[in-house]
Amino acid sequence: MPLLPALPPGLLDALHGVLGARGIVTDQADLVPHLSDWRGLYRGASPALLRPGSTAELAAAMRLLHEAAVPVVPQGGNTSMVGGAMPDESGRQVILSLSRLNRIRDLDPVDMTMVAEAGVVLKTAQDAAAAAGTLFPLSLGAEGTATIGGVLSTNAGGNTTVRYGNARDLMLGLEIVLPDGGVINGLRRLRKDNTGYALRHLMVGAEGTLGIVTAAVLRLFPRPRAEAIALCAVESEDAALALFRRFRDRDETAVRAFEYMAGQGMDLVLRHVDGATLPLSERADHYVLVDLSSSRPDADLRGLMEGVLEEALEAGEVLDAALAESEAQRAAIWRLREEHPEAQKREGASVKNDVSVPVSKVPELIRRSNAALTALIPGARPVPFGHMGDGNIHMNLEQPEGMDAGAFLARSHDIMDCVNAIVRDLDGSFSAEHGVGRLKPDMLAEWRGGAELDAMRRIKAALDPLGLLNPGKVLPA
């Protein structure tokens, strides 16, 4: 193993002084899990992992690192899909983990707020809200690993955005440590607070390039007391959108999630995921998962579901449908959707496109992308799926059967460019919920250039003039 560049003389001792023995890891064997990303796109190097036990410890450490001009890469649950939490290969960048900042400081079911530290795992926050008879609605596939700090720094979306919004919409206040060690104490539980610039919103979605979120005030909601879930085979992409409109027009507040899945993706789940079964009589080319919920115990969601599906069946939009009759069936239906990434991984190499377009343009996005991708790489298998209700589709492409995985992945940027050309034509975004990270900064100049990118650079320069916080992420070099 090559020797890593040493930290400036005396810095390690000074960091030990503020963080203690538990707060610094330098053994390279212990750093291994922090040096590669979930998708296996990047492998970095680092001289040390810092694990502060409090906001005060982190602030003191950041002052030392700033004075020594040492770059810092914040890392939450390390579930980034775009390499947003990876150090580079130079070995100069210190990794910062907030895993020890894992307390829920407060939960108020009257204010309907929770104050959670950045290292709290998302599932832990969900469970704490449920134990108090409330709901923290942010839900995504990595919720058992992703942390509150990570989902806020990336403005995570997930399955319930159509009803509750993204992470930004679920945040009221933040505690933030700045690159020079300054602390913004913004843990205010207020719905209305017009006192200057909303600095908290700068941090959400900044991917750790402007400041480090150490704690957050999160919005809670009444817990669901009625639910109804169905898996539907639909005639086409347009029929899927028509079904969404039927539910939205009947009762927009009842729609918790509306997920689209292509037949080819469902085939992979049924092939590779043990215990996965299709609760419909026949295979289809297009499916949707409809998830309804209400805080009213007397809400007749079953009647709503059956009524809308009956109309859609008569109109030829829905071909078949299965309604969950138990919690086990509900979980089994959701599993068919959630296991799409794992099934693609087991099938072989895939290139992922996390894009969004106006909801009305989703069917066109899927059709045009399918045609363009199969023309670009004959035999490749488009596997579109995702959040049709908010316009975010994961327009993924699986390698052709028998093709060398390396040769396929070498075409990754060609594949992304192919999809992005269509997305741009439809007034969409090249990153809907995964962020920019290390994978896509070069796209930012083309999509957000001119005055918009210049304003971003000025903000970065004002808050992090030395460029030490998560370098190489978001902004193009």
TrEMBL record:
Keywords: FAD, Flavoprotein. One of its GO terms (biological process) is respiratory electron transport chain. This is FAD-binding oxidoreductase. PROSITE patterns: FAD_PCMH (PS51387). It comes from the Bacteria. SUPFAM superfamilies: FAD-binding/transporter-associated domain-like (SSF56176), FAD-linked oxidases, C-terminal domain (SSF55103). Pfam families: FAD-oxidase_C, FAD_binding_4. GO terms for molecular function: catalytic activity; FAD binding. Belongs to the FAD-binding oxidoreductase/transferase type 4 family. Residues 42-223 form the FAD-binding PCMH-type domain. Its cofactor is FAD. InterPro entries: FAD-bd_oxidored_4_C (IPR004113), FAD-bd_PCMH (IPR016166), FAD-bd_PCMH-like_sf (IPR036318), FAD-bd_PCMH_sub1 (IPR016167), FAD-bd_PCMH_sub2 (IPR016169), FAD-linked_Oxase-like_C (IPR016164), FAD-oxidored/transferase_4 (IPR051264), Oxid_FAD_bind_N (IPR006094). It comes from Muricoccus nepalensis.
